[in-house]
Design brief:
Blueprint (H helix, E strand, L loop, with lengths): L2 H13 L8 E9 L9 E4 H14 E14 L2 E12 L11 E13 L2 E11 L3
Parallel strand pairs: 1-6
Antiparallel strand pairs: 1-2, 3-4, 4-5, 5-6
Length: 127
């Protein structure tokens, strides 16, 4: 399977609430650069991602990832993604059932067929 296909499957797993962490190497790191929801940014290990996944399932009733652009070069896949999420709980000015939108630039570095590093540059629409 190509790395681009792995990224597509990973994003579909998140949408379907399946085990998306199976796509990561044991020593993987995910970095989220500062944005409206995480102003200081974050650096997460696989254990941190597991905890964030549990929390996220309680915040969103659904989410989708539309790949706008995807480029594969060697061990790296770069994506521009249109993300949509429907809230299960209130968040700032939004109430349950309201939708959020964002554009993400996501860079994946692979070790074999596993994600070793993920860097997110998330740009949320005002809420």
């Amino acid at each position: 399977m190509s790395r681009a296909a792995i990224v597509r499957a990973y994003l579909k797993a998140i949408e379907g609430r399946a085990d998306s962490l199976a796509f990561f190497a044991d020593d993987a790191v995910q970095e989220e650069f500062p944005n409206a929801l995480v102003p200081a940014g974050a650096r997460r290990t696989v254990a941190d991602l597991r905890a964030a996944d549990v929390r996220g399932r309680g915040v969103l009733s659904s989410e989708s990832y539309e790949i706008v652009t995807l480029v594969e070069a060697g061990d790296t896949v770069a994506c521009e993604v249109l993300w949509r999420g429907v809230l299960a709980v209130p968040l700032r000015t939004l109430k349950p059932g309201d939708a959020m939108k964002a554009r993400f630039a996501v860079f994946f570095e692979f070790k074999g067929d596993k994600i070793r590093r993920q860097r997110n540059y998330d740009c949320f629409e005002p809420f």
